[in-house]
Each structure stands twice: as C-alpha cells, then as structure tokens.
Specification:
Chain lengths: 543, 214
C-alpha cells in the first residue's frame, strides 16, 4: 500500500524535479572536479581582489540584514502589528533583485533623484562628482543586498513569530521574564533571539551564499576593477573560448568553497563562544527597553527606499529629457513604453514561463502531497534545500551541461526545465507546512458525510488551504520571473527573457527604456502577490 | 513587606470586569482568591503585575508597603509570578534558568546561591540538566525557586498546581507554601480548587466580577 502510493503520487515530481536536479548535480560535480581551468585561475589578476569583494560585501550585507530584520521583527511583535507588516514584506520579497538594483542605481546616481533632492540644500548646479554605483568597495552592492535581504530575514522572523504556539510561548515567557526584572531589550536578546536562531540560521546561510555569488545585482551595481569573483566567473562562463569556460567553472567552484568555508568558520566561532554567550544570557536582569524609535523607523526607512526606487523608475521611464537640478522632468512622453512594447517578446516569454512553471509546480506538489506519505517529505525537502542553498552559478552550470546532453539548449523546453527547478524548491518549502498541518479529521468527517475524496479536496481541503496555495503560486511566479543566471546559460543566445534583456539594457545608455523594462520586471510579481493576498482572504472577518 | 490593593478593579473596553475592592496581604501571608474559570482571576493578577493585554485597563492602586507601584513598568515592580505551566526557558539549563532572574554580582557567589537553591528544593546536582528532562513536579519547583531567587517583594500564583497529578499536588503545594512563608513573602493565590487553600489562610470569592470575603 505504502509502496504503491509512493510510486504514483511521486512519479511526476521525481521525473520533472528530482531527476533533473540530480542529473544537474552529477554534471556539476563532474565539472567542478575536473582539473582544467584551475591553473589559469590561479594566474588570474582579479582572483584575490574579486574573492575578497565577494565575501566582504556578502558578509556585511548578511550581518546588516540579520540585525535589521530581527530588530524590526521585535518591535513589530511588541506592538502587535504582525499581520499588517506581513503584506508589505511579501511585496518587498516579490520585487526581483535585478529590478531593485536597477532602480536603486538610478536613485543614487549623480544625476538621480537623491542628488536632485539634495541639490537645493547643497547649492549644486551640476551633478555631484560622487561615485555611487560600481564603487570600488562594493558599498552600493552591499546596501542593495542588505535592503533586499532584510525583507527575507524579516519574512522568516515573522513566519516563526506567527506560529500560534511560538507566539503564545513568547507572550508567557515575557510575563515571567518581566516578573524577574528583565526589560524588553533584554528579553529579546536573552530569550527570543536564541530561541529563534534555529529557524533563522538556514535563511541567514542562504542569504550569505546568495549574496556572495550574486551575478545580476553585481552587474548593475557592483565594482568593476576588480569585479566580484562571481562576475569574474560569469564573464568566463559566457566566453566563447573553452579555456575561459573551464577557468570560469574553477572560479565559481572556488567561490562556492570559500563561501562554505566562511559559513563553517562562523558556525565554529559560535560553537566556541557558546559558553560566553550563555554566561552573558544568565548574568542577571537588565531593565533596558527596546529603543522605541528604532524598529519601526527603520522599517519605514526601508519602505521609503522601495517606494523611492519605484518612483524614480516611473519618472525616468517617462522622461527622455530631465535637466539636472530639476526635481521633475521638463516634458513627459511615453516613447520608452512604446518602444518597450514594440520589443516585448522577452516580457511575454517570461510571463509564459512564470505561469507555466508555477502552475505545473503546483500540480506536481499537490500530486505529491496527496499521493505520498509525509515520511517521504524529508527527501524532497533535502533536495529543495540543495537547490536553494547551492550557488545559482554552479547549479546553472550543471543544468546547462544537462541541457547540452538532451540537446535542449536554446529551446523553450530547456528554459522551462531550468525555471521549474527553483520554483518547485521554493514552493515545496512554502507549501509543505500548511498542507501537512491540515487536520486529517476533516477528511474523516467528509467521508462520514458520504463525500468522496475528490469532493473532500475540492469542497473542503483546498478552499480551506486557499491562502497558502495562492501565496505559494505567487512565490513560484516571482521566483521564475526573476531568474537570470540559469536562463542566460540555457538560452544559449537564442532566446531572451525579461531579466536578460534588462541586464543588457542596464549596461547601455538608454535610461528611459531601461527604467521601463525594470518596471515591467517588477510589476507582474507584485501583482501576483496582490492577487494571492486577495484570493487568500477569508470570507468572514475576525472580530 | 506587605502587598496592598486599594480600590483596585479591572475593566475590559470600558466595561467593568472586576469591581473595585481593597485587600492587604501581610508578610508571609497567603491569601486565596477563588472563582470559576473565566471569572477574570488571571486578568486581576496581570493587572497587579502590570502586563494587562491591550483593551484591559486597571483602576485604583497597588502598594508595596508605602511605595505605590501601579504606574511602574512591570519589569521594575519586582513581583514574582507562577503560572499553571512552569514556563522554564527551553534554551537554558536548569541552573541557567535560576541564574536568569538573580541580581548581577560576582560569578562565584551567584553560582553558589544557585546550587544552594537547588539543594533547598531537593534537586542537588541538577544544574546542567535540560528543563524537559525533569518531571512536572520538579519543573514547578524550579520555576518557584527561579522566582524567589529574584527577590520578589510579593508573589502571584496563577493556578500553579493545576497541571500536577493528584498525589504530587499536595506535596508540591505544602513545600511551595513553606518556602514562601519562610521568606515572609506576601502571596496572592488564584485557584478554582478548594483543596489548594492553605490551612487557616484568608479566602476571597470572586463571582460575577465582585470580590467578597468568604
């Protein structure tokens, strides 16, 4: 019985997700263990500078994101504003990294909105001589990553805090700790952060690996002389020379190993400091309160940055002429939008891929959840974590080699395959908890009322689970829509998706068109999250 | 030290939940407040401790001897609390739970106090154990000791024996009362079980929001 259930429900997901993933891993390992390319890499002049930049920007961005995320989460929990915040965090997560980076670069560039706002105060008549994007230390890249990943950390903090048993336990522990003389800051640092840490350390590790190996954001904002090691690898991987490709593979491998080493060292340091941390936790009460202005002010600050980025993109996309100190352009026209829609095939391709992958992933996951015992979830969870935690650069390399064998490079089918992988991984992680927590007694109750399995699913279970189902679809859609690295390799220059087109444009000088494309990259995922929020709403309202 | 409630009451969204009443709890005295569940007993204790949920408000004042504390932050009131659940912090060992509320000071001194306290509740050598490895009765004793080690000026007990099984209950009950009396801590106990009332102790009834002397 158990065997046959595993076979039928599991087959589609195993065939379309697990098998290609394992094959890609196999080709990736075959590639990264080959000795070609390493010799060239050691002699690459940008190797060490690039490595330091990659790890440094990633570490700084991860630390900032962790502290801001926890702090904002704390202040929101204290004020009971969890539900209200969750929606804007979801919106923030939905914005693709690339679109945010393009918007931020326009916001802070010397002739950007920020400089124009400052101009009257500083008496500037011409753009200031500051170097904001592509600065040699990666400050712009770090800030962009930190802003974006704070949302991710916060999302995980809120997810942990909104579990009913955690929220209840924390409220009770808070009452006890207060009676023992601890103020809110002490309660957070000594009680809540240590207890939240187990559910935050994977998100933090994933953030770090992502930041250390990010390609699209670094192309738009990162330093160039030298660039981050991820970009060194990327330009080699996109070269026509086989020797360069091998060197790129070696660089990507080295970067992944170095990032893993940093994480291992951080883990070791925490382990060694365990005793000191516990002495600090138990050294006695402190009545200090959470700084009341800090959390929400920071959150508003983040929101302001996101809104300013969008505003800046909207103005630029409508303004071919925008003399410097003026806050608003002299004239508006929609020429860039006309041009964007004349060349809209990347948009349609990305939309089609996002719809196809998220919908088919949902079908695959429902077949799995309904047909396979919960015991086997562990396997799928492990594969999903591998797909998410591995640097996109390396995994994309394996996927590309797999597509070469299948003769699917440069085809829509190949693009579908490489988009489906991260979509399934994210959706599995998002959906598993709510779906498996569904109270099985509803099924018995429905059966007792003479309803068949299908009627139970369509009339009771799925309607009850519509909020998590809808938001997992939105997550899948957004993940697919933002894919750059695997798409660029798999397309082999024959097809163009929206992120690829946006990267190309951002290297050029046509700012209105670039802004229009960045907005096109931003809007569909936001709409998807908005739609998911509406679809998931209860028909009744809580009092 | 004694605990005084003066014309004290609780309101929910402006509606009266517990009518104003006055009460004095002398040093070492254990006053019992009896009432059915849902009668607002727990809200009354939260009001005294100062951490009422939003929408609840308290009226009147709370005094510890001649210090009025009803406007003080909850963490500065130094009122100990015990709940039905022991609420030991799961990420800390038994010993660390005890240290958590102890005033700051030299490390060796605090460690010695913690160990002596464990001996006092019959758990000598348990300091490195995880809370979940203890029995329910042992955990409740640790929770009480954790509260006492923070030197509370008064203690509020919210059905602290409710989760213990019957044969353990009377034993934990008498050891709890003994510890509290020995430290001369004024104590307010809330329960719906008449068996929890200490021998010869003062009892108040709470019914339909009105507190009356039994």
């Amino acid at each position: 019985m158990a065997y046959s259930r595993l076979r039928f429900g599991a087959l589609p997901l195993l065939m379309l997700f697990a098998l290609p993933l394992l094959a890609a891993l196999f080709f990736m390992l075959a590639d990264v263990t080959s000795r070609a390319g390493w010799h060239g890499l050691w002699q690459h002049p940008q190797l060490w500078g690039g490595l330091a930049l990659s790890l440094g920007t990633a570490a700084a961005a991860t630390l900032i994101a962790f502290f801001l995320g926890v702090l904002i989460g704390a202040s929101v929990f204290e004020r009971g504003l969890l539900a209200r915040l969750s929606r804007s965090v979801a919106a923030m997560l939905a914005v693709p990294h690339l679109a945010f980076a393009i918007g931020l670069s326009f916001l802070v560039m010397p002739s950007g909105l920020l400089a124009r706002l400052l101009a009257p105060l500083m008496g500037w008549a011409s753009p200031p001589g500051w170097i904001t994007t592509h600065d040699p230390y990666g400050v712009a890249l770090t800030i962009a990553l930190a802003c974006k990943e704070t949302g991710f950390v916060l999302f995980n903090v809120l997810a942990a805090l909104s579990r009913p048993e955690t929220a209840l336990a924390f409220r009770q522990q808070k009452a006890v700790a207060q009676s023992l003389g601890h103020g809110s800051l002490s309660i957070w640092l000594r009680l809540f952060v240590p207890q939240l840490w187990p559910s935050l350390r994977w998100p933090v590790a994933i953030t770090f690996i992502y930041a250390a190996t990010v390609v699209d954001m670094a192309l738009v904002l990162g330093p160039t002389q030298p660039p981050t090691l991820a970009l060194v690898a990327w330009s080699d991987l996109n070269s026509a020379s086989v020797g360069d490709n091998a060197r790129g593979t070696a660089a990507a491998t080295l970067l992944a190993l170095a990032a893993a080493l940093v994480l291992a060292l951080a883990r070791l340091a925490l382990h060694l400091m365990r005793q000191n941390l516990h002495s600090w936790i138990t050294r006695g009460p402190s009545q200090r309160a959470l700084p009341s202005w800090l959390g929400l002010a920071k959150w508003r600050g983040l929101e302001v940055i996101f809104v300013a980025v969008v505003l800046c993109l909207i103005i630029l996309s409508l303004a071919p002429l925008w003399p410097f100190p003026d806050l608003l352009p002299l004239q508006w026209n929609g020429a860039a939008w006309g041009e964007a829609f004349d060349h809209a095939s990347p948009l349609w391709l990305s939309l089609a891929l996002a719809l196809a992958t998220s919908l088919s992933a949902l079908v695959l996951l429902l077949l799995w959840f309904e047909g396979v015992d919960e015991l086997h979830d562990k396997l799928m969870l492990a594969l999903s974590m591998v797909a998410l935690a591995l640097p996109a650069l390396l995994l994309a390399l394996g996927q590309y080699k797999l597509l070469l064998r299948l003769d699917l490079t440069g085809t829509v089918a190949g693009l579908y395959m490489v988009h489906l992988m991260p979509v399934v991984a994210y959706m599995f992680i998002v959906l598993r908890g709510p779906y498996r927590d569904y109270d099985a007694r509803f099924a018995s109750a429905a059966a007792a009322l003479g309803r068949g399995r299908w009627q139970h699913l369509s009339r009771i279970k799925w309607p009850l689970l519509k909020a998590p189902l809808a938001s997992s679809l939105a997550v899948g859609f957004a993940v697919s829509f933002g894919q750059y690295v695997p798409a660029q390799l798999a397309a082999a220059g024959r097809l163009t998706t929206l992120p690829m087109e946006s990267v190309t444009l951002s290297a050029g000088a046509n700012r209105p068109l670039t802004a229009a494309f960045a907005l096109l990259l931003m809007l569909p995922p936001l709409l998807a999250f908005l739609a998911a929020g509406l679809a998931g709403r209860n028909r009744w309202r809580a009092a | 030290m004694s605990l005084l409630l003066e014309q004290f009451g609780v309101r929910l969204l402006g509606r009266e939940l517990i009518a104003r009443f006055s009460l004095t709890v002398e040093p070492g005295e254990i006053v019992t407040l009896m009432g059915p569940s849902g009668s607002g007993k727990s809200s009354l204790l939260s009001a005294i401790a100062g951490d009422l949920a939003p929408n609840f408000t308290s009226q009147g004042s709370v005094w510890l001897d001649d210090e009025k504390i009803s406007a003080t932050a909850p963490e500065a009131r130094r009122i100990g609390r015990l709940f039905q659940d022991d609420l030991l912090f799961p990420h800390l060992s038994v010993g660390e739970n005890l240290l958590f509320g102890m005033a700051r000071g030299p490390r060796a001194e605090r460690q010695a106090m913690m160990k002596a306290a464990l001996t006092e509740i019959g758990l000598e050598g348990f300091e490195r154990r995880a809370p979940h490895s203890l029995s329910g009765g042992q955990r409740q004793r640790v929770a009480l000791m954790r509260s006492l080690l923070s030197n509370p000026r008064a203690v509020l007990l919210d059905e602290p024996f409710g989760r213990l099984d019957a044969n353990l209950r009377s034993q934990i009950r008498s050891s709890t009362f003994e510890l509290l009396k020995r430290r001369r801590t004024p104590t307010l106990l809330v329960t719906h079980d008449a068996a929890d009332v200490p021998e010869g102790g003062k009892v108040l009834n709470i019914e339909n929001g009105v507190v009356t002397h039994a």
